[in-house]
Design goal:
The complex is a heterodimer of chains A (about 200) and B (about 170). Chain A is built from ten helices and no strands. Chain A has about 200 residues and is mostly helical. In chain A, helix 4 packs across helix 5 and helix 9 crosses helix 10. The radius of gyration of chain A is 18 Å and the shape is elongated. Chain B has about 170 residues and is mainly α. Chain B is about 80% helix and about 0% strand. Chain B is flat. The two termini of chain B are about 35 Å apart. The chains are: A mainly alpha (about 200), B mainly alpha (about 170). The interface between A and B is large, with 52 and 41 residues.
């Protein structure tokens, strides 16, 4: 009988097999592994914490209740990111969430709403000056990511924030590999344009 | 950037570096608990069958039909059973009395056997001497306290969150 510690060492596929066999700890392990990446992706897409939580919750419920339909020849991470991305894209299309502002979504009226919809920049324990610079650049990048088209945003986040392979991103986005590479290239160019004011 | 400006190449590198270093966001506390509350864990086949049968029966129209059928079958059974019972009352009384006597005799035999064993094995003498001597009392009290403490420990162990639960709550 695998303990929580044993589960940590298993591959996604093996954890899914245990979950299919009815082991609750395996479900929790999948949640533990993916709650941050899935939530981060959705949050950066929709820029609304409460909405991102709802969409993440829906994603996990959908995935965990449909484990029987999961086909092991595909990566589990591709499957869950695909559902998460679809949920975020659907939401963006439905509500046309404006993602330009780091200072909160445009729909935010009260101080609480502004705070809830504002993204915070990184804090990685660097020296105070380096940390300030990194935070400022991080903030600029968060803003610039928010200006990208949703497809570019998904591609660049999966590639450079989540560190996923091009092939996996193609699976997640249901696009040909060449298109994904083009999206990432264009996203980088757009990011460079948005951040041009930082150049000498 | 504040007073530090970047050239184009530096900017590209810095952007890629910062992208890979962007923080990951965590959902609020209790997120995994809320998800798990909505997840249907696979059940053993027998339980699933029982639940499905229960759900099938609890459909309003089916429930009314089944309740009516049940009431009708009880009425019909009583209609048939009561005259039969009246016709065979004396034989049934005899049978019930015989079964009662057999059960009583079996219970009597078992009780006598237990008492005989208690006397022969010395268990009765041990209990009698323990009750009369003061030395056995602390030992019995210690055993009772130990038993109660083990019960409390077991309860606490069951109540404590497991590793994953603890992680989920953190």
């Amino acid at each position: 009988m695998a303990t929580a510690k044993d589960l940590r060492t298993l591959a996604d596929r093996e954890v899914v097999a245990l979950a299919k066999a009815g082991k609750e700890a395996a479900y929790r392990e999948l949640l533990y592994r993916y709650e941050r990446p899935v939530f981060s992706l959705i949050y950066r897409m929709v820029r609304d914490r409460a909405l991102a939580e709802d969409l993440s919750q829906e994603t996990f419920v959908k995935v965990l209740n449909a484990l029987d339909s999961y086909r092991p020849e595909f990566k589990f991470s591709s499957w869950i990111f695909k559902i998460a991305n679809n949920a975020a894209i659907d939401q963006l299309r439905k509500r046309e969430v404006n993602t330009l502002s780091l200072d909160g979504a445009p729909g935010a009226r009260t101080a609480e709403e502004v705070e809830a919809t504002a993204l915070q920049a990184a804090d990685r324990g660097e020296s105070p000056l380096a940390e300030l610079e990194a935070r400022e650049l991080g903030t600029e990048i968060e803003q610039a990511i928010g200006k990208l088209r949703p497809e570019y945003r998904t591609a660049i986040l999966l590639r450079h924030v989540e560190g996923r392979a091009y092939e996996e991103i193609a699976e997640v986005m249901d696009l040909p590999l060449g298109t994904v590479k083009t999206y990432i290239h264009r996203a980088r160019l757009e990011l460079r344009d948005y951040l041009a004011h930082l150049r000498t | 950037m504040t007073d530090k400006q970047l050239d184009a190449g530096d900017l590209d590198l810095a952007v890629l570096r910062e992208l890979s270093a962007l923080r990951s966001f965590a959902p609020s506390r209790g997120f995994s608990g809320r998800v798990m509350n909505r997840v249907r864990l696979p059940q053993p086949a027998a339980v699933a069958l029982f639940r499905r049968a229960g759900a099938w029966v609890m459909q309003p129209r089916r429930a009314v039909t089944l309740a009516t059928a049940y009431a009708a079958s009880v009425v019909i059974a009583l209609r048939l059973a009561v005259p039969w019972l009246e016709a065979h009352a004396s034989a049934l009384q005899l049978g019930v009395a015989w079964i009662g006597a057999q059960l009583g005799a079996a219970f009597n035999t078992a009780a006598m056997g237990l008492a005989d064993w208690a006397v022969r094995s010395g268990a009765a003498a041990l209990v009698r001497s323990a009750a009369s001597s003061g030395a056995a009392l602390p030992a019995l009290a210690a055993a009772a306290i130990g038993y109660a403490a083990a019960g409390v420990c077991f309860y606490t162990l069951l109540k404590s969150p497991r590793r994953n639960d603890a992680l989920a709550r953190s």
